[in-house]
Every structure is written in structure tokens, then in C-alpha cells.
Specification:
It is a single chain. The chain is 5% helix and 51% strand. It is mainly beta. The protein has a single domain, classed as Porin (Beta Barrel). A hairpin with a 2-residue loop joins strand 6 and strand 7.
Length: 321
């Protein structure tokens, strides 16, 4: 389809870190979007709304909106009895409550991603299982089952030739596609450190719901997230994360984020995306449940001459205490 000029293709050619899935500057606040097992790292049930506008002023720039949430599935405590005790004796005082070593979380995600002449709407259901290895370490495993709709808008595409057989074949095969998708992840976590690995879209186009050839070439995405937190009581809570992403044939992408939370519940941070941009983050806790976050991206590659940067806004609500 070399004769079709999409703004999306222009963006891909200028940015060596191209990926099919949306990227987020505030990934430090939204790790379950990348790895479903990380829902088990959440202390409270929560729901998050977010919007991202990239490369403003470029024209047909990528825009993303999402809503995600998760909650813990309650475990029933088990009573253990000492069988050596006399049956005739009241065992009430000798009963002990045995806490399960497993924790279960369920959640969901909905994302809308628009880029040039294309858009994508995805709905995912997620499940995460946490298992206590010992007093310090926990193993998390998660799975994501999703459905995606891919759309193409002819009005946003420009064809340079009147006789483009490849373009005609593309349109004839349908400008709207539906596909099921699977993802999975694992995370090893302790009090101040974690490392997680996940794969998304690992079914590629195998679960495409159309029998005709698909031009929406879904690729497998791998990511590794690791983070460390450190607290200076009464002064600042620090958290740092590194995100590595890979989608063939694109090169490995690396993102680094550092976040500092002050005693007055105001937080600030910085984000770096290699060969692409630097981001500045800030936010605050409106109260014990609401958190607002904003980030500004500034390109560090040659795209800086063609756009006014990007913006990302998130609002999250945590249930309970």
C-alpha cells in the first residue's frame, strides 16, 4: 500500500519506538494496563479514567482514552481445629483463623485509540492471582482476555493514484475488523521492589473474526517493568520504574520514570522515553480517595519542530479505607 499516505505512517517513520499499543507517560500510575498480574499489587479497589493527546498541532495526531479498574475477590477464612482435644470440651477458644496464602483480583479495561486514518476500541477482562512465597516475597500471575474493533476511515486517507489496485483490494476486504485477543503476565514482588514480565496480543491475528485477509497486522508485544520504592519518613516517598517494550521489527524501547510524593500529598515526577521524549508529571490527592495527575511531553527527536508536545490527564478513585 505504498501509494497511500497516512499521517500514521509518517509518525511511524519518524519515531523509531513505534508500537501498535498505546503508550502512557504516567505508566508509573497505571501498571495493570501493561501487565494484568499487577492488579494484585493494588491495596484497594479502584477505578481510573485517563486521556492522552500526543504531538498536538501535527494533524490527525494520536489520541487515547481509557477507563480501567480492579477489585479484590474476598477469600473466606478457614478455621483450624486441634483434633487431639477432647470432643466434650468447648473448642471455641482453641479455634484459630487460617489466612489463605492466595489473593484474587478481577478487573477490566476499555481503551479507545485514534491515530491518523485508523482507530481501535478494545475491551478487556482481567484476572490476577497472588501467592505468598514467604513472609517477604509474593508471586503474581495474571491473564487478560479482550475483544478489539479496528476501524479505517477513507475520508482521512489520501491516495496519490487513481488506479491503486492494492488500495481497492484493501477497502474491498472491509474497513472494519473484529478480533479476540489474549495477554498474560507474571510479577515477583516484595515490600520495596518488584519485577514483572508480560506479553500482549500473543494470539496476533489467529483469533480474527473475519475469514478475508486482514491488513490490521497485530504483532506480539513484550514488556518488562521493574520498580523500587524508598521512603524518607516525614520528608518524601520516592518511587522509580523502568519499562522495556519490544515489538518486532521495531527496536527495543525503554522508559524511565521517577515519582516523589511529599507529605502534603502533592507529587511530582519526570519521565524519559529513549530517542523520543521527556515528560514532566505532577498531581495531588484531592482527598483520601481521589487522585489527579497531569503530564506534559516534549519531544527530543526531530518531531519537536512539527508539534507542540503532548498532554496526559488521569483521575483515579479508590474505594474503601
Amino acid at each position: 500500500m505504498k501509494k497511500i499516505l497516512f499521517v500514521f505512517i509518517i509518525l511511524c517513520s519518524l519515531n523509531g519506538n513505534t508500537q501498535q499499543l498505546p503508550q502512557f507517560t504516567q505508566f508509573i500510575n497505571n501498571t495493570p494496563l501493561f501487565n494484568p498480574s499487577m492488579m494484585s499489587m493494588q491495596e484497594r479497589a479502584s477505578i481510573t479514567l485517563g486521556g492522552r493527546w500526543q504531538m498536538l498541532g501535527f494533524g490527525s495526531e494520536p489520541r487515547t482514552a481509557f477507563i480501567s479498574g480492579q477489585t479484590r475477590i474476598s477469600n473466606k477464612s478457614k478455621k483450624s481445629l486441634n483434633p487431639s482435644l477432647r470432643i466434650s470440651k468447648d473448642n471455641t477458644e482453641n479455634d484459630s483463623v487460617k489466612q489463605s496464602r492466595f489473593s484474587h483480583y478481577a478487573g477490566g479495561q476499555m481503551l479507545f485509540d485514534s491515530y491518523g486514518a485508523f482507530d481501535r476500541t478494545s475491551i478487556n477482562g482481567c484476572y490476577s492471582l497472588g501467592f505468598d512465597l514467604n513472609e517477604d516475597w509474593k508471586m503474581l500471575a495474571g491473564i487478560k482476555v479482550g475483544f478489539s474493533n479496528f476501524g479505517f476511515y477513507r475520508s482521512k486517507a489520501q491516495v496519490t493514484g487513481n488506479n491503486d489496485q492494492e488500495y481497492d483490494a484493501y477497502v474491498a476486504n472491509g474497513t472494519n475488523r473484529n478480533s479476540f485477543d489474549l495477554g498474560a503476565g507474571f510479577t515477583l514482588v516484595t515490600k520495596s521492589f518488584f519485577i514483572g514480565f508480560a506479553a500482549n496480543q500473543f494470539t496476533k491475528t489467529a483469533l480474527d473474526l473475519s475469514s478475508s485477509p486482514s491488513y490490521f497486522d497485530q504483532r506480539m508485544h513484550w514488556n518488562l517493568i521493574t520498580g523500587y520504592s524508598y521512603s524518607i519518613p516525614g520528608i518524601v516517598d520516592l518511587q522509580g520504574m523502568v519499562l522495556l517494550k519490544k515489538m518486532a521489527p521495531s527496536p527495543l524501547s525503554m522508559e524511565i520514570a521517577v515519582k516523589a510524593v511529599l507529605p502534603n500529598q502533592v507529587w511530582t515526577g519526570i519521565h524519559f522515553r529513549n530517542r523520543s521524549s521527556v515528560g514532566f508529571m505532577a498531581g495531588f490527592l484531592i482527598n483520601e480517595s481521589f487522585q489527579l495527575g497531569y503530564s506534559l511531553d516534549i519531544n527530543t527527536n526531530r518531531l519537536i519542530s512539527f508539534n507542540n508536545g503532548g498532554h496526559e490527564l488521569i483521575l483515579s478513585y479508590r474505594f474503601g479505607n
